[in-house]
Amino acid sequence: MRRDAETEMLPAPSRGIAAVSAIIVTLSTFSFPAEAQEEIYFNDFEGAVGAEWSHRTTDRTPVGARRFLGQFGNGSVTLTLHKRRSGRVSVTFDLYLINSWDGNNPEHGPDLFEVTVASNPLPSPPASVADFKALLESGVFNSAAWGNPFLLYTTFSNLEEKGFTQSYPSFFGEGDHPPGSGALEYDTLGYSYFGDSVYRLSFSFEHPAGDLILQFTALALQDMSDESWGLDNVRVEGASVPEKIDVFRTVKIIAPRPPYGELDEIAPGEEFRIEVELKDPPPPGTPPPVVEIVHPSGAAPLEISAAMTTGDPRIFRTAPIRVVAPPP
User: Fold this and answer.
1) DSSP string of 141-177?
2) Alpha carbons 105 and 172: distance in angstroms, whole number
3) Does residue 235 register a pLDDT over 50?
4) pTM (predicted TM-score)
5) Burial code of 168-185, b = ≥16 C-beta within 10 A, e = fewer?
6) For residue 307, what is the DSSP state?
7) Looking at per-residue confidence, does 242 or 257 come out higher?
8) Architecture of domain 36-240
9) Is the pLDDT of residue 252 over 60?
10) Does residue 60 have a pLDDT over 80?
11) What residues does CATH 2.60.120 cover in the chain?
């Protein structure tokens, strides 16, 4: 994270209104720790499933007894995380595809799966086919009802022996790939009716402040005894952005010469300095504070570097300043 400026404004001195309207001090290029991601939600479904999930059914795999959220058929399951701050969000989860998913097969499929950000709708539908294709290629586009942006809209297949294909890792309509393409695991969960597969899926997107709602949906599946799905190891991370840091301890108007006493007022044409004290020494290489003198007439502000050090790495002073009223 790089914060370009921290500022502090002083009001005009009581008698110096003809000379100074305001004093603005800016500390430029102050470096902060890099923006990081913090975990805001995780569930492997080995314990309780909370009200954040619209459906709380769980099951265990025949092999390994892995507990997961599911099984589900056609329809949607949502995860709602309340009152999130704005910023980049990353989502990772394991998708379990159980039994005879048919992929792109036109007779038995397509067997579709989608992931949408239900809390972050696009403002309007694309205006043309070309615009729609551009959204499709970008990996984020709207549903037929122009509802919520898709993170994923694709087909999967477990039917390698039948020669079926699937769209994943492409979006639906954009590719034909062998069953299991991109899978983390294939035929490891112990389901006997044409097997199973596990996909670890990850997405990253910007999200405004407020509730974060993720929606997972399967479409055009056959009966759950034939085709079903589940979720495991759902992790959501959000940007951990440092709060605004007040780097200034004091900003003073002082006399132009030692002992540099603080001034309560400035007469027009009188010399003075600005002294800036920071709460902590700035990182090496940080430019000194910049003082901007704002004149009540609206004339262009005067910028002066507070480059003079005092022996204390936190305290900076400007050279002597004289601000006079511009000619009428």
Assistant:
1) ---TTS-S-EEEEEE-B--GGGT--B-TTSPTTS--B
2) 12
3) yes
4) 0.60
5) beebbeebebebbbebee
6) -
7) 257
8) Sandwich (2.60)
9) yes
10) yes
11) 36-240
